[in-house]
Design goal:
mainly alpha; 42% helix; CF(0); mitochondrion; ATP synthase complex subunit 8; transport; single chain; 1 helix
Length: 55
């Protein structure tokens, strides 16, 4: 079964991950997120118990 032979595919996988981590990842991380979690305010909701009609 040639799918189990890692020799040709391991180098391709390693090259693609290195390309992603060296070239594409810094470019993607340089964008400023418009949805920063530190700017969000927390809302505390009041939890009320469920009223069952038959109790």
């Amino acid at each position: 079964m040639p799918q189990l032979n890692p020799n040709p595919w391991f180098l391709i996988m390693l090259t693609s991950w290195l390309t992603f981590s060296m070239i594409f990842q810094p470019k993607l991380l340089s964008f400023i997120s418009s949805n920063s979690p530190s700017n969000k305010t927390t809302f505390i909701t009041k939890m009320s118990p469920w009223t069952w009609p038959w109790t």
